[in-house]
Design brief:
213 residues; Nitrile Hydratase, Chain A; 2 domains; two-stranded parallel ribbon; two-stranded parallel sheet; 10 helices
Amino acid sequence: MSEHHDHDHEAPRRHRHPLQPDADDTLTYHRKLEIAVRELLIEKGIFTADDVRAAIEELDGRTPDRGSRVVARAWVDPEYKALLLKDARKACESLGFDMDLFDVTLTVVENTPKVHNVIVCTLCSCYPRMLLGLPPSWYKSRAYRSRMVKEPRVVLKEFGLELPEDVTVRVHDSTADLRYLVLPMRPEGTAGMSDRLVTRDSMIGVALAQRPR
C-alpha cells in the first residue's frame, strides 16, 4: 500500500459576515462591586447561582407582549384604565404579571389628541423591562438620550412621526427608581381589535398605535 496520502486541502472559508468584537468585559468599579456583592450573597445562602441564572433568563426572554396586553385591556375597560393610571403596578399584577423582580415605581402616561408622551433615560438605559423586555439599541444610544430632551419633535420626525403643532410633546426621563410606559391612543375604527395594534415603539412614544390595513 502506498504511503502517499492525497488530501484535498481547501483554502480557508471566508466568513459570510465580519467578525464581531467581543463584549466589553472591562472590570470597572461597579462591575467589581456587583460581582463581590453577588458572590457574598450566594456564600451566605440568600440565593444561589442558579437563581441568578434563572432570573437573567426570565428577564432576557421578556417581550413587549405584556405591555400590549396591558394597553389593550385599558382600551376596552374604563375601570382598568383608571387603575392603570393611578397604580400601574397593581394594575399589571391584576393581569397575573409578577412585578417583584423590579423594585421600582411604574408610571403610565396617557396620550390624548392634545398631548403626546415619549420616554427616555438621559443617564443610561432605564426602561420598563417588566412589560417591554430588553430596550432597543437606539434607546440606549447617546444620540437618542441627549437629543430627545432637546429637540423631541425633530427626533420623532426622524422616526416617521410628525405631530401637529397644537399637540404638546411631553418627554419623561426615566430613572433607576421610576419607569414610564406610554398608553397610546386607540386608532379609530378598530373595534374588535386589540393588542395586535400595540407596538413596542408606540409604548415608548416614538410611534402611534398601528392602524388596521
